Amino acid sequence: xxxxxxxxxxxxxxxxxxxxxxxxxxxxxxxxxxxxxxxxxxxxxxxxxxxxxxxxxxxxxxxxxxxxxxxxxxxxxxxxxxxxxxxxxxxxxxxxxxxxxxxxxxxxxxxxxxxxxxxxxxxxxxxxxxxxxxxxxxxxxxxxxxxxxxxxxxxxxxxxxxxxxxxxxxxxxxxxxxxxxxxxxxxxxxxxxxxxxxxxxxxxxxxxxxxxxxxxxxxxxxxxxxxxxxxxxxxxxxxxxxxxxxxxxxxxxxxxxxxxxxxxxxxxxxxxxxxxxxxxxxxxxxxxxxxxxxxxxxxxxxxxxxxxxx
Length: 310
Hints:
The chain is mainly alpha-helical and 310 residues long. The protein contains 15 helices and 2 strands. The chain has a two-stranded antiparallel ribbon.
């Protein structure tokens, strides 16, 4: 098995230089590598390489440009994370409202297995998810002021309070075991069908985790694709072999999902913030055209027009 050897800052700089990266201020570069981590900054090199097979930078690429993409991704990730938290909170609120109204406000009522999918193939899944939810009450119920208040004063935790203890991933699991009619009542709020909303929640949960752990986001691709939408058609997104080449499993697919799940004003703010960060990046990177960056992100050239569509 191969092993990685520790590299000093000087050695890291030499590796980058030997691959053709122009470093005008070595002290500043070393400071950034120490503070930000060589591995993470180097993770953005692919966009600047001469080819996929060749591990050398395009002639003239500077450290400042490499770092600019790193900074862009951080800003983009923060913008995305903020809006994913909005979606997460909205989903929790809507699900808790719908289930509480129908099944009651005490956990012994709303967490009854009979309130969830009766598909024989999902019996084990239903029990597993409900046990996870109950475990959150036992482990964390007295560590949060709101849940502690209800437990101390009423002896139970209503679902609209409990959801604060549940991760986005657990909300995804909870949605997956709902009865078809309950899924429908939630999906209709977003003008989506049941299966599409399920796909969206799963993917958005995945991206939420990527953002929370500061992974590289701007060029991320998911294994699962979103279904074709009216926005693919209205934006005239090009196709290859009858498949849209943008907005299926790339970052633009997240933009499309947020279009459905954010309010119009929140979505407009999101688009404006991303547009601003892209304009900043365009002013900091000369060696590659912004069209290449948009392509890597999965953004069509007219991506901003989605904010004007209904």
